[in-house]
Amino acid sequence: MDAKEKLLLWKTVMALQAVDGLKTSAKVIDIAKKNIEGDIADEALLDECESLKNEADLVAVRMFVNIMQNQFSLSQFELVQIRKALFAGILESPELLRTANLSKKEWALDGHALVYPKAAKIQTQLNKLFEAETLFDFGGLDSKQIYKHCASFISSLWALHPFETCNTRSLAVFFIKYLAFRGFALSNDVLSQSAVYFRNALARAAFCDGKKGFHKTTRYLERLIKKMIFGGRAVLDPRETHLYYDANGVVLKEQVAAQKEQSSSARLDEKLLAQKSAPAKKAAAPKAKKAPAKKTAPKKDAVSKTKKKSAKA
Predict the structure, then answer these.
(1) CA atoms of 279 and 251, how far apart (whole Å)
(2) 222 FRET partner, CA 20 to 30 A, in 62, 179, 185, 207?
(3) Helix/strand/coil for 199
């Protein structure tokens, strides 16, 4: 792997920490720089992990090393081995499938919860998914059929939420290696620039609420994979993946269920978007309107206190 390829991979693994609301430090950036310039050998990268305490730093280095390895098998075993390699010492028993039934709110779902399949069904579903994918023949497929199938497979795997936590980063490494296995090596900045879009697209592919008119869709994930594999100028804006989104590029706040707590990944994404989008500047306007009310309030209190004093006198 040459310096340019290493730079691309380092950018990707560091950006992917954002899917779980984490951010790498200057320390891992220095390690990456030395590795790209040849001052730290690839074989010595895992030794550098001993000095890292930040989870995002540690996992980023492990992701880089794991993706560089050419070994890959299209199997549940491979997915489990990747997870163990990434989160050993960070998570307890990272190789185990989840045993609890889970639901989770995702930023792109605007307050709605994504309900994952029951834990008791995970193993059966994994067996079916990998068996079908192993038998699938890519021969004779056109470009559209290729990226649509890749989107269908990886979204189905993510939707199972096979592990208790940290599924997206584990799956991201598996997905990059899967694409290389299919003959599409990582060759551009798409995933590194669209890590949050990647997670949002996966959430939209898994979410369904027929009563409210929402159905599973892989169209966002297809756009991402198409650009990763075949290139193009498609703009991958994370806001487009929201359930409530209009053609003008504005998330319709009045239709979004109240959500008091935002995940750190949401705050990170909005911070990035604020530098590029006009709506972020408009959002500050309401604060200016409230300011006069705060200034006049103490004056009323002062008047009331004066009246009380005069009454006592």
Answers:
(1) 10
(2) 62
(3) helix
Do the Cβ atoms of 129 and 155 come closer than 8 Å?
no
Name the E strands within the chain: 103-105, 113-115
- What residues pair up with 115 in beta bridges, in sequence order? 103
Convert the pLDDT of each residue in 183-208 to its tens digit: 998 888 999 999 999 999 999 999 99
Burial class (CB in 10 A: 0-12, 13-18, 19+), 164: middle
Rounded-to-integer distance, Cα 160 and Cα 155, Å: 9
Give Cα 20 distance to the centre of its chain: 6
The dihedrals phi and psi of 227, each to the nearest 5 degrees, come to -70, -35
> How many whole angstroms separate alpha carbon 32 and alpha carbon 52?
13
Decide: 220 and 204 in contact? Cβ < 8 Å.
Answer: yes
Is residue 76 predicted with pLDDT exceeding 80? yes
Q: What is the mean pLDDT of residues 271-300?
A: 48
